[in-house]
């Protein structure tokens, strides 16, 4: 994002859309995607968590969609978040920039397992991997493709449009103020 700042709206749009392509690639990878969620799982990190097949979360991990508090929108991740946790929860989180922990993430369907320490998280990962390794890779790949087709997918057209909107937001008054406030470690002008 810092390098795109000097290049303008087109650079922001292209960078944002490239992230959407990455999310699509992870979502459609034939391998089982397992994420270990610790620390800050915000914005793009939350998007990546939403395209994983199995999510293991630390109970203290902090999840959220902070984009609107920066004057931006969660352009590329929004369709994946809606798909994973539902429209009602996605609206609440995106429109309030609220944060929540690993336990709440599990209740929303974003964490499959929540552990209270690093050792328990590592043990859970070993357990999940053992189960995955019992499955035929080709059967898993075909099953994943079938499940994804059953749920519907964000379209290229939607993600292209979202990248345009992101570019407009990040170069607009709110986006400039919000991202500068973030870099300068201060609250944006609209925040109390």
Please outline what is shown here.
It is built from ten helices and six strands. With 192 residues, the chain is mostly helical.
Number of helices: 10
In the CATH scheme, what's the topology name? Answer: 2-enoyl-CoA Hydratase, Chain A, domain 1
Domains (count): 1
Shape: globular
Strand content: 5-15%
Rg calc: 18 Å
Major pleated sheet: 3 strands, parallel
Could you describe the 3D structure shown?
It contains ten helices and six strands. By secondary structure, it is mainly alpha-helical. It has one domain: Alpha-Beta Complex (2-enoyl-CoA Hydratase, Chain A, domain 1), CATH 3.90.226.10. Helix 2 packs antiparallel against helix 9 and helix 4 packs across helix 5 (87-96).
Which properties best describe this structure?
192 residues; mainly alpha; 2-enoyl-CoA Hydratase, Chain A, domain 1; 3-stranded parallel β-sheet; globular
How do the helices and strands line up, and which of them pair or pack?
Blueprint: H1 2-5, H2 9-28, E1 34-37, E2 40-42, H3 44-50, E3 54-58, E4 62-64, H4 78-85, H5 87-96, E5 99-101, H6 102-107, E6 113-115, H7 118-133, H8 137-151, H9 156-171, H10 173-183
Parallel strand pairs: 1-3, 2-4, 3-6
Antiparallel strand pairs: 4-5
Helix pairs in contact: 2-9, 4-5, 9-10
């Amino acid at each position: 994002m810092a390098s795109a700042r000097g290049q303008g709206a087109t650079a922001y749009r292209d960078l944002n859309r490239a992230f959407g392509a990455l999310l699509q690639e992870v979502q459609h990878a034939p391998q089982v995607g397992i994420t270990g969620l610790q620390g800050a799982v915000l914005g793009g990190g939350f998007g990546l968590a939403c395209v994983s097949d199995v999510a293991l979360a630390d109970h203290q991990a902090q999840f959220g969609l902070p984009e609107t508090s920066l004057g931006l929108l969660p352009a590329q991740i929004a369709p994946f978040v809606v798909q994973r946790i539902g429209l009602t929860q996605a609206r609440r989180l995106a429109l309030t920039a609220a944060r929540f922990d690993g336990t709440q993430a599990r209740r929303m369907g974003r964490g499959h397992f929540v552990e209270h320490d690093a050792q328990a998280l590592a043990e859970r990962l070993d357990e999940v991997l053992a189960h995955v390794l019992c499955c035929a890779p080709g059967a898993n790949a075909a099953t994943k493709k079938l499940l994804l087709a059953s749920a519907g997918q964000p379209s290229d057209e939607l993600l292209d449009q979202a990248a345009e909107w992101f570019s407009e937001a990040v170069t607009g008054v709110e986006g400039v103020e919000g991202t500068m406030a973030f870099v300068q470690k201060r609250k944006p002008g609209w925040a109390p």
